[in-house]
Amino acid sequence: MDRTLWKNSIISYAGWFTNSLRRRRSILFGLILSILLFVVCVQYNASNDIGIQNIQNTLVMSESDADEQPLNKHQPPAPISGTVRKMKKEEDVNFIEELQEPARKSRRIQINEPQQSLPYVPPQRLVHIDFKGAPPKLSYLQKLFPLIKRFGGTGLLLEWEDMFPWSGSLSPIAAGNAYSKAEIREILKMAAMNGLEVIPLIQTFGHVEFALKLPDFAHLREVQESPQALCPSYNASMKFVEQMVDQILEIHGNVNYLHIGCDEVFHMGECFRCRAKAREDLFLSHVKQVATYVRTKSPNTIPIIWDDMLRHLPVATMQLYDIGKLVEPMVWVYAEDVYRFVMQSVWEKYQIVFPNAWTASAFKGAFGETLYIPNVKRHLENNLNWLQLMSNENSRFTGGFKGIVITGWQRYDHFAVLCEVLPSSIPSMVVNLLATTNGYMNQSLQTDLNEGLNCGIFGHNNEYDGDFLNLNNDPHLWDQFSRCTFPGNTFFRLLYRLHTIEIDYNDFILVTTKNRGWMTSYNVEHEFSSPLRVDELMNDHSRIYRSLLSMVRPFQESMTGIFDKYTISEWIEQRVYPMIKELEKIHNEARDLKAKKTWPKRPLPMLKELLRIGVTERELSTPSNEGT
User: Known catalytic residue: 527?
Assistant: First the structure.
């Protein structure tokens, strides 16, 4: 009995165990499969690490082999397109490296190997602030200057133009919203408090429109029809320049440098006083006269000039006028390929004539007169290529390069509309200043960038070092920095929205007035269209129109702490209002087209304006050779 009970118990337990095993079979199977997958993944990662290491070793060995080739510094680097050039170690500069794989390969490996030599960093790194016709408020500059200092700026190139409080016989030049002398002194004080050296800039030859446009100074023009340039042969012109220099030096004090402009003198040798003289003599004699006056007035002040008018001049002519002893050239190129615009032969001339030189890149205001946001990708490429060139050419000057100025133009000239204003360009300024301060741009600078722009938890984090800014997909850095809180960030963020609306607007205008056949200028002129088709074309009109109207007040509020009411209204008039006005015009045209209830039979009357361009109302006879 006990044996039978024991046997039945064993059988019952075995049955229970078997049933439980069946129920848990899927769980056990999944557990075993997970363990197997884990083992396979570990083995795959180990082998993959070895493979990548082999690729890296191969690339490093290839670089080492390339470094053994002799470097010809007289041969400018090949032009680039869309990527920043990868330089050899002897060229003393690190750059963003983009190793482009062939199109058939979908994977791209980017490697930034540490270089043995230190990257080239310009001794001085100045930010150019262009005040032309749009003066930032002092409260905004008070926030801007510490930012420039934090990211490595050593000074400011301040172009006052009509925003300077000119006085005496020059008082008509000062704009109605120009800074006062007290405000100028406060700006200089803020610069000094942030350890930023100030170099004032005044135009003394070309680009004198701010004065020559006025009747008081029209007699100083080289060409009476154009206020672009002074006549260098007229004694009153030099007297005018001396007065400007006196007033600038009076308020700026004993500055180390004074930039006297002299770029893009478009009119020269055209008036009756100048026709008998060679253009190069006219230019160099005027520059010598102005520079000599500056050095006499302030012996410790070195005049700087833009270099473009010197590029074609022979060495002997420049030496004849002692230009190398009087001024220092500031060589400016804002395009990506610097050597293309200032070739090796020009550098060789400059190195003979001048012991020192400056360079000038750009962070805004260089790629389109009507842009409202800078292309950071292009500007960064420009700055990095300048570093490469400066590394190449620095030792050829006896005193080397003095530094680089990162220009930020607000208008292309006095008459031009506003291009990218300061708050739209802060990320570009910071990125390019950081690159020139360190000699390179890679992910090691990401923390500084995010902290300096107050990105907080929204700071961008990209694990791919070679493309951490993602400039190929986000050249304006809207995605990267729209949620950061740098000075002017609200305006910067609103531009992203405006850009999106502008795309919809352009598509609507193109489709409605060009691509479709019911609201063209012909339809509107003859009031001849289908109401049904007009309604179809106007489907998106209200949405786009309301979106634009909704942007006006936020833009005004976002700019209030940055610019005065005149600059704000000018910007809105140039950027937003034209689209609103065009949409209102199309709305009225659509209303008139739909108001028609009957339409004439063809042919429609000929437009009378066609007579003006030679279209005749009578039927022309068929040419006798037609069809032969």
Answer: no
